[in-house]
Amino acid sequence: MALIGSGVLQGLGVTLRTFIETYPWGKALLGVLRIRTGQGLVTIEYPDVRQQHHERQRIFPFLVYDGAPDNLRCVSCKICEQECPPQCIHINGPAKDEQGRPAKVHGRTYPVTFDINVAICMSCRICVDVCPFDAIEMDNEFELSTEERFGRLVFNKARLLKSNEYFQQIKPTEAAEVDARLAAKAKPSPKPAAPAPAAGPTAAPAA
Questions:
Q1: Most CB within 10 Å of its CB: which of 66, 159, 167, 168?
Q2: Residues 139/59, Cβ–Cβ less than 8 Å
């Protein structure tokens, strides 16, 4: 049976160990006690020095394009809009041509507008998980403070667009998995072999 409050005690132990290992004498003491040490308490001189974020960190979504901004992966299927818990994604599309047919760029349909209200986005990543085209990913940019509560916190398509190279830079492991998955989808499947022609009826031997 677990002791009530054991998790709190463990957390306090981690805090105490981190505090002690900040000082040289503390690291020496923990070394004698054979307790694993880390970096201790580290102060980052922000904004002159910026902390290197872990690849798992996520802030708000962005839209991925390949090569040029008009080569957008999003096809305006609106699955992310439907699955978004706080309903902060708003998509208008797909774009139509003069005859009312779906317009295409690089062989894909595309949204006319794509807005995300980051004032209510909770960074749950559901939009990323449900997208069948790997068109939306999570960013790690956090310097987004603004004096306006509404207009500046609604990111439109132009602000959401970021290249796949940017995605590879901030999340190399995840980007490599996505690129491999997209390459596998783009690879043409081998054509099935043609069935062998059926043998005709054999002629009866002459008497």
A1: 167
A2: yes
